[in-house]
Specification:
Layout: E1 4-7, E2 12-15, E3 23-24, E4 31-33, E5 41-43, E6 49-51, E7 54-59, E8 62-67, H1 68-81, H2 85-98
Antiparallel strand pairs: 1-2, 1-6, 3-4, 4-5, 7-8
Length: about 100
């Protein structure tokens, strides 16, 4: 994974690579801290930045890079396919009554 953002003001991409790696763009409008671990932070106005984070997974010996929006879209598709918990629970209860 790569934790990075693009500053629209100074047109610079910055990346925080580790837990205590605090970085800011050249104009100071966008800042990152915390690397890819939990508790990472993005500082600045959302209107001044664009997410450039990338996730990597291994497909055999090949690295595949996916931007966060691709993962978000896929997650939303998966959620649409699965039934809500209440529907599944009701189905299981009805099935138990029949058996």
């Amino acid at each position: 994974m790569r934790h990075s953002v693009y500053c629209k003001k100074c047109k610079q991409t910055i990346e925080s690579k580790s837990r205590h790696d605090f970085v800011k763009c050249s104009c100071g409008a966008v800042m990152l801290d915390g690397g890819i671990g939990g508790g990472n932070r993005v500082l600045g106005y959302l209107s001044d930045m664009e997410d450039r984070s990338v996730y990597v997974y291994m497909d055999g010996k090949k690295k595949v890079y996916l931007p966060t929006e691709v993962l978000q879209r896929r997650w939303e598709e998966i959620q649409k396919v699965h039934l809500p918990t209440e529907v599944l629970q009701r189905h299981c209860e009805e099935k138990d009554k029949v058996n």
